[in-house]
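Structure first, sequence second, as always.
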């Protein structure tokens, strides 16, 4: 009812006169008013040979009495000027929402999507199974596996895959070319109405854009056979219109860690005239990678394995992804802004791994999984200001639908020759999600009240070719079933402005996670995993410093954790996550940029008060960058570092992982059209464990079987250096 009521208000109430121009306007960064630099502060000093990187663009909602903003005049053409594009974005409405701009992303080495995600406050991104597999994510006390509790979006394209064979919400961002990430828009928690499926611990959106106008070549050579070439073309002033290609390969830092990949991303923003604008985003990606598996801790201590050993040679896989998004922004009427988008995605995965050796079967426990998915979706968003009882109300409405077709298999293969000996899954799935949401914000003096709601209807059809398989009969194999369910979620928030730049926030939100389709029975009401989240916090937005801190809690009604190493799901009932998070962005001096964050979290089973395994109780991150012109050389020197601290994570059977501290560094020199950059990952050459697990295994088939649990780990990368030459034309 809330959705229909707010929709009716948007059309029946008198619209407030236009105060924020949503038209895309080209202006230089020096001409941007200060209110457009939310979460960013002032832009860094211009380089003598390269224009400054624009701060993240975010349009705040001005007071109703403000006159309409005018389009700034275009500056005269000059070789050292660079334009930016101002777009309307969602203002932050909770304490933990943050935008991370290009200047912060440029402070430390960003070789791939894993390195980009590590700058998100409180988020741990682990790549423990090779360079082509989706990252394992940890955020706010959640072990999100490969995406089941973190909603990821790249340029408007959803990344999470529903009912995936390997992990629910599987989110592979390896197709992202890190040089194209213009900013990260992070919404932690589940407090906003636009957040959809898998937005349990939070939502991360990557906005794409090219850094400089013209053509840019970047070639990288590094240790362990690393070779990489990136070519970027930006034909005009708009950073959102670009084309880029990446080709890379590496032998890896140890056995069975080689990979090769290629990615293409292109986007165009087109002015169709009469206030109508269009956006097209397309991309293709393919990779082949090896996976080292795990090392048993007792094998390492006994000298039977080295720290960087691989377990079995057949592990690894292939991935491809092809995607297209078409968007239209309709002409504005007063404050109204409407955007329509349609998207399609084709993805394929073939993955082989063996985490338990010969524990289950003397022929080996090798498992091959395949998942082929096709996604078609439509989305509409409408934002405007209306008047209610003489007060301005900011209104946001959204409608959408997504249809996923999935073909998946799971088979056991023999370690000696790789032949298959058992079929475990052979299923065709169709999953359709239709949603609608509404959110309204009413300011009253220093107070502001936010109320919203979201409804998601999920329909699932499953054909399981192996269901009810009985070797006594030649017929009766395979089974079809369908299910349907609806999730209703409420969103609410209160804001109190202490000063013009400092405010207090209280937020509440219902999040959800869709189910694994193959687990549903005929006619079942599709059971969503319900999450109820609350947050109390504060944030301060200044020209040189932005700060935010919050206390948070999330209650999951019927939770479970999936141990993907042994393929078992453990249902825990109600669980509770609590914690404290703080983040700071500052630019205290010209050329100096810093982003600091720390999150402390706890995750327990409500009934027993037992700690959940694998979540990250302490995560701290620091990204520091310094840039100085060298007038004598007519060049610019840049120094940067990224520091990560991950506290001991609880493991099954009352064990804990090791503490991880990593330091990455980069130094770059830019003169004219040429730049040389040295990136060093794991500068201190720390011997660290990227993933740690406790379960039973048997890697030597000559030893007797045992169910006694043992420690296992996957090794993190040693110190690795790479040199990159950039040519800007």
């Amino acid at each position: 009812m809330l959705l229909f009521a707010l929709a009716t208000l948007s059309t029946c109430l008198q619209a407030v006169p236009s105060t924020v121009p949503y038209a895309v306007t080209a202006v230089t960064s020096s001409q941007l008013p200060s209110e457009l630099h939310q979460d960013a502060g002032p832009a860094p000093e211009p380089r003598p040979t390269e224009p400054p990187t624009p701060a993240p663009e975010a349009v705040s909602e001005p007071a109703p009495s403000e006159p309409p903003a005018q389009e700034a005049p275009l500056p005269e053409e000059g070789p050292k000027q660079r334009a930016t594009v101002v777009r309307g974005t969602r203002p932050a409405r909770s304490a933990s929402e943050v935008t991370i701009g290009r200047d912060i992303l440029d402070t430390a080495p960003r070789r791939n999507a894993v390195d980009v995600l590590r700058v998100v406050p409180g988020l741990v991104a682990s790549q423990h199974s090779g360079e082509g597999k989706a990252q394992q994510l940890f955020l706010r006390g959640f072990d999100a596996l490969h995406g089941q509790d973190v909603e990821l979006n790249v340029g408007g394209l959803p990344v999470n895959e529903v009912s995936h064979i390997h992990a629910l919400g599987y989110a592979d961002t390896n197709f992202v070319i890190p040089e194209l990430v213009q900013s990260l828009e992070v919404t932690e928690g589940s407090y906003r109405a636009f957040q959809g499926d898998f937005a349990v611990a939070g939502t991360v959106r990557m906005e794409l854009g090219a850094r400089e106008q013209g053509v840019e070549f970047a070639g990288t050579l590094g240790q362990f056979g690393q070779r990489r070439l990136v070519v970027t073309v930006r034909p005009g002033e708009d950073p959102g219109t670009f084309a880029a290609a990446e080709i890379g390969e590496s032998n890896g830092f140890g056995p069975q860690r080689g990979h090769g990949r290629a990615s293409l991303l292109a986007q165009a923003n087109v002015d169709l005239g009469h206030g109508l604008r269009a956006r097209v985003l397309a991309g293709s990606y393919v990779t082949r990678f090896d996976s080292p598996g795990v090392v048993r801790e007792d094998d390492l201590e006994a000298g039977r394995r080295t720290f960087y050993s691989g377990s079995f040679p057949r592990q690894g896989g292939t991935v491809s992804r092809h995607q297209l998004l078409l968007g239209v922004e309709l002409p504005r009427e007063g404050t109204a802004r409407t955007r329509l988008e349609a998207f399609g995605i084709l993805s394929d995965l073939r993955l082989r791994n063996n985490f338990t050796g010969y524990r289950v079967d003397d022929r080996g426990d090798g498992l091959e999984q395949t998942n082929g998915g096709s996604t078609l979706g439509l989305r509409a968003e409408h934002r405007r200001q209306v008047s209610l009882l003489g007060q301005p109300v900011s209104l946001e409405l959204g409608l959408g639908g997504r249809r996923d077709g999935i073909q998946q298999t799971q088979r056991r293969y023999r370690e000696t020759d790789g032949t298959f000996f058992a079929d475990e899954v052979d299923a065709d799935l169709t999953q359709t999600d239709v949603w609608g949401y509404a959110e309204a914000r009413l300011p009253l003096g220093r107070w502001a009240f936010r109320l919203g709601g979201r409804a998601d209807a999920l329909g699932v059809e499953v054909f399981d070719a192996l269901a009810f398989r009985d070797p006594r009969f030649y017929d009766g194999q395979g089974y079809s079933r369908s299910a349907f369910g609806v999730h209703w979620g409420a969103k609410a928030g209160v804001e109190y402005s202490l000063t013009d730049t400092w405010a207090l926030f209280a937020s509440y939100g219902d999040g959800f996670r869709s189910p694994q389709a193959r687990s549903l029975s005929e006619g079942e009401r599709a059971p969503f995993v319900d999450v109820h989240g609350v947050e109390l916090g504060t944030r301060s937005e200044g020209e040189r410093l932005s700060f935010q801190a919050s206390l948070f809690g999330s209650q999951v009604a019927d939770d479970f954790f999936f141990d993907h190493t042994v393929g078992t799901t453990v249902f825990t009932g109600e669980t509770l996550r609590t914690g404290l998070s703080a983040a700071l962005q500052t630019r205290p001096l010209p050329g100096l940029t810093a982003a600091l964050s720390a999150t402390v979290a706890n995750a327990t089973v409500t009934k027993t008060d037992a700690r959940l395994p694998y979540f990250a109780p302490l995560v701290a991150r620091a990204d520091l960058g310094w840039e100085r012109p060298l007038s004598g050389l007519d060049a610019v020197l840049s120094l940067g570092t990224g520091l990560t601290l991950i506290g001991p994570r609880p493991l099954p059977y009352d064990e804990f992982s090791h503490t991880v501290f990593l330091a990455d560094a980069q130094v770059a020199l830019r003169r004219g059209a040429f730049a040389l950059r040295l990136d060093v990952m794991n500068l201190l050459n720390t011997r660290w464990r990227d993933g740690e697990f406790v379960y039973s295994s048997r890697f030597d088939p000559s030893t007797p079987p045992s169910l006694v649990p043992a420690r296992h780990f996957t090794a993190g990368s040693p110190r690795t250096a790479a040199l990159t030459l950039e040519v800007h034309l």
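Margin note: The domain at 97-728 is CATH 2.40.170.20 (Maltoporin; Chain A).
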